[in-house]
Hints:
This protein is α/β, with parallel strands linked by helices.
Amino acid sequence: MADYQNEAQRRRKARLAKKAWRRRRRRKLLLSAAGIAAIALVLVLVFGGGSEAQPTEPTETAPPPQTTVPQETVPVQTEEDKPQTGTTVIHVAVAGDLNVTDYVLENAAHENGYDFSETFLDVAPILSGADLALLNFEGNLSGGSYGFETGAAPLELPKTLKAIGVDAVQTANSAAIRQGVNGLVTTLEAFAHVGLTPLGTYADSEDFRRSGGYEIVEVNGIRIALVAFTKGMDNLGLPAGSEDCVNLLYKDYSTDYKKVDTDRIARVLRNVSEEQPDITIAMLHWGSEYNDEISSSQEKIRKQLQEGGVDIILGTHPHLVQKVDYDSIANTLVAWSLGDFFGDAVMAGTNYSIILDMEVTRDNATGEVYLSGWEYIPIFTLKPEQSVIGGHRVVRIREAMERYESEFVGRITEEAYGDMEYALKRIEERVNPKKDEKDSQ
């Protein structure tokens, strides 16, 4: 344990030293630019604003010529140089997979289209209350027939997500090219139209190069880098010339998922590093469906990402909640799988999951930014028959149970209450699993 803590402390100190060096470098560049500007101003005052100054007629009251005395140059004080105290705290909320399926769409269908206004109403306070809200959108907006086969969703779905506070969605996942690269391009355009930022997919190689394979968002002065990768795309392969359209974790992404593409990952991380963000978040569509196993290749990816400067890793794809590893010394977090945010909830364990609420703090005196804490909110996918008012909805478990206990008019059924009791227990066991006897020895 001591060796682990020493190594974690070493990694944290190295990251902080690197970020401090970058801040000093930016400050020097700013001061250098300010000094040059000030010197230029003095020269203009001494020698005049141009080589062909126009003469003016002297008057009787004209004062005698004065000699211009250069004043002491005062560096321009930037916002970064101004003394600051206290801390700035922001919250990042992240949900798991939103699965575009036939059942999801059938329950939202109405005579004149689709209505998701009630679907996410109960969790809207969490997402809209966060400073930055993210989730994995396992679908596309490429039009045509809607449903699981195409992965296509109506625009009402992303519009509703935007309305409840979601800011960015991971699009590097199983459904990314289910309707080909043309469908991907259409999806990106649709997300831009709605006002959601897609993560991990690009229209073409030029789009990838222009973005660097990442996005930067600034929240209350804290610069956050967002990257997203997927293990594959339902065994589909990208056509020649479109290799940069999706950030991929494996070289054999359409077959075995065993050969980690360290070069591709490193390329994106280098681009992020040059941007000098305060904190970096990676969203990963990885692991195996309906399986709790964490593979050796996932461990390899985790190590490369953390050594490359990633502070927070957020996993999806298994559809089940998995453990959350939080290192309070190195200030890093790995949520191996957040589970299904919303979907059919047919398979065991897919009807409950979590929304992660992470606290990010900046020390305004030193400029240090770090993950300062986290908690999870347990959620549950209700089917129409599981509540008095019906509807296919995602709800907060504790609040739904309280409404049942108080005999609230829109309460859940007794059966659903029992399912939620079980879900609370299983979520805690999955998020914070007990160590094996071997690990505790």
